[in-house]
Design goal:
The chain is α+β, with helices and mostly antiparallel strands. The chain is built from eight helices and 17 strands. The longest helix has 17 residues. The site of zinc ion has 6 residues, from helix 4 and strand 13.
């Protein structure tokens, strides 16, 4: 269990350039699936045949391989790198960040203004930021960095105390790792149509294509979602009121089931089924009602003639930053819940309400 999570977290796979992650996943699932295919966009689709395949619904279980990051767009006169974001990144966390540029992982730092000079607190636009790779002029920088090079957070995977995992791109390498564990740990009655998708962070694109290929009866996305269990940074710092930004999802309280997000409404039959399973198997879970964000299930449920879909998410603090944080116990509970889903799913679950 979790054998590949560190490797997955530290691999660089900004949307559209997921090849390093794909390599790890292909190795990890080798021998525990019956068919593997890499599609035209680069998503991995794999079939693990069930022991009662024809009698059970076919389930597409999805996790996305890509992560947010940046792309180089040029070099300015001083040899500093211009760049744009790929996926959603808050400009406020970027100044001073350590990054790796291009396929050889050239180290760099995003410019930040020293506090001595930053007289006001204006947020600098990413378009006005630059990355310093230590080049002394434009020619030197141009020799090292090409337009279109991806730029990733430079961050190591760490275990904080015994229960907390910290690293970049746990959204959604944690989901990839859960899916790998589900495939490796057991066999199931239903056919599993596994999809490790590309380009989720820029519009759920890889899943759309993968779902058309796999033609599932049911979709299950494994994700890492924003945990809102941090104090409100806008609150009065002297107040004793520990007001949360969003108390609906907390790290360490179990995997999160979504009713609805920006991309989909969870199928009510599958949501009811997941909640019943969690109760029967004693898996703690949380319900997320916030509308923000989207998942690959947003693409899967609209594929073909429609695919009833649901999402199991790991609550993560500081996602889309170099140091996301998830709980070890949430991870294990997400694996258990996904396994229970696959072991027990019958066509009866999908009967009209
Ligand atoms: Zn994600």
């Amino acid at each position: 269990m979790m054998e590949y999570l560190q490797q997955l977290s530290e691999a660089i796979g900004i949307s559209g350039r997921e090849e390093a992650v794909r390599k790890i996943v292909l190795e990890a699932i080798d021998g525990c699936v019956d068919e593997v295919h890499v599609d035209a966009l680069g998503s991995i689709t794999a079939i693990k045949r069930g022991t009662e395949g024809s009698k059970r619904p076919k389930v597409m279980v999805d996790a996305h391989m890509d992560e947010v990051g940046f792309m180089a767009t040029g070099v300015d006169g001083d040899g500093l790198i211009k760049f744009v974001p790929v996926g959603g990144i808050d400009a406020r966390i970027v100044p001073g960040m350590r990054v790796k540029v291009g396929p050889s992982g050239i180290q760099g730092v995003v410019l930040s203004t020293p506090i001595h000079k930053n007289k006001d607190s204006t947020v600098i636009q990413i378009a006005n930021m630059r990355i310093d790779i230590g080049a002394s002029n434009k020619e030197e920088a141009n020799g090292k960095v090409k337009k279109g090079d991806r730029i990733a957070f430079d961050s190591r995977y760490r275990i904080l105390n015994d229960s907390t995992i910290c690293g970049k791109s746990l959204d959604d390498r944690a989901g990839c790792s859960v899916l790998i564990d589900v495939l490796r740990e057991s066999s199931y009655p239903c056919d599993i149509l596994a999809a490790f998708t590309v380009q989720e962070e820029i519009g759920l694109r890889g899943a759309m294509v993968a779902a058309r290929r796999l033609k599932p009866d049911v979709g299950l996305a494994l994700e890492c979602t924003t945990a809102g269990d941090i104090p409100n940074p806008l609150a009065d710092p002297d107040s004793d009121d520990p007001a949360d930004l969003n108390p609906t999802c907390r790290v360490g309280r179990g995997p999160t089931l979504s009713f609805m997000d920006r991309s989909m409404i969870a199928d009510p039959r599958l949501l009811r089924y997941l909640r019943q399973l969690a109760d029967v198997y004693g898996v703690p879970y949380q319900l997320k009602t916030q509308l923000g964000g989207g998942t690959d299930a947003g693409s899967i449920h609209r594929a073909n003639t429609g695919v009833p879909s649901a999402v199991i998410s790991l609550p993560g603090r500081y996602i889309h930053s170099p140091h996301a944080l998830i709980s070890h116990s949430d991870y294990l509970n997400a694996v258990r819940l996904a396994q229970a889903f696959l072991e027990n799913l019958t066509h009866d679950v999908l009967k009209p309400l």
